[in-house]
Write a structure and sequence with these properties.
With about 475 residues, the chain is of the alpha/beta class. It contains 10 helices and 21 strands. Helix 6 packs antiparallel against helix 7 and helix 7 crosses helix 8. It is globular.
Amino acid sequence: MALLATALAALALGGSAFAATPQQLTITASDGTALACSLTEPDGTPPAGGWPAVMAFHGLGGKHQDLEPAALTYFVPAGYAVLACDARGHGTSSGAFGLDGPRYVLDTKELFAWLTARPEISDTQIGAVGISLGGGAVWNATVAGVPFKAIVPAVTWTNLATALAPQGLSKSGLVQLLAALVPQSRWDPDLLAAAPALSTSTNMATLTAIGASRSVAPKLASITTPTLLMQGRHDFLFDIDQALRAYKKLTGPKALYLGDLGHSPAPNPAEEQATFYKAILNWFDHFVRGVPNGVEKQPGIVLAHDPWDGKTTSYTTLPQTKTISVALPGTTTMSGATGKVVRSVRVTGGPHETFGDTALTVSYSGAKSWDRLVAVLAISGNSTPITEGGVKLGSASGTATIKLMDEAVRIPTGKKLVVYLSSTSLAQDPADALYLAAVQPGAQITIGRTTLHLSVLTKAVSR
């Protein structure tokens, strides 16, 4: 899994008028847990009131050193101090990994208090940026009342349950991959108890409970902290909807940047980093430091082109979309874990660019021990899917609606679209391990008429 933190760690370090060296230190939490951290400050005399600062939070399986290149390359040269720490259960911090549980919120409160108590740091001019797991920490701390002046939750979730198991079917292969990033010997008991449900899509009430205490979705309307959301346009862990729902509900100043950053299959081009870090700095300059740079007057939504070409398209409101519905007729019976149905269609016009809520409606019958359907939508000849989705079935026959992840992908003119239906995503490609938990060998189901409801931008922006 190409995590964004890996891309950050690979940033080249540039020269700076505020040359600095990260100070490695240990901060002890109130329960005695030792948190490994670094504090990077600009050289020279702090301004009146102290340096404005950024608290930075790394991704799953990461460490605070992953964030130091960004601190040295972007934030410190702009006059910000940066505090970054290994989350408990990560790196050389002690404590148990809790997937942004309540103890993580308390850690953030205590780290904020530690930082603002330093005489060279401002008491009030503190922003926060978090990547993936760290983005969840930023959201949860903000809801809990940590007084950040501005936040940037990046490539993260607002509803953890729907991110990991949309429509009640776990992204089992991805969950297993993520779980391996932190040894289970470091997990807290609640998370360990939920692990089987995450992998098998059974006892989903456990996942719902875990997700509820770690998700801001029900509380978004209460957040007035200026928020710059950053999300990947092609990310199979946290899709565009995780950020788009937040953008719709937030009541304070807000903006949304959608780019080629994120989790697999996002390419994370190094050339794009300067663009999105400029957006972050402009956001912090205005809302943390009070610089009148006009960022609050700019269009709220920015969509980077795919592949990255150095250009973006801005929208003052949500991008307009249209739905193209096409029938995929036929009747096919599939059996066992490797059974699959493949249907294809050419969508007229184009080029098209997917955006919004694409779905498949599937007529099925004769389901015997077949309790799930996984759908993969791909461009013919391209091994990387456009999007995927899955749903648990509740009866032996009927019509299932499979909601596919909200991904922004260009479909060239004249290209054939291929839909794969099975119990796993392996039906599309042996390397596509998003949905791995399969039906039993003797399972069977008959797939009838299928309709693709393809949501695309009214006008494609990528060329």
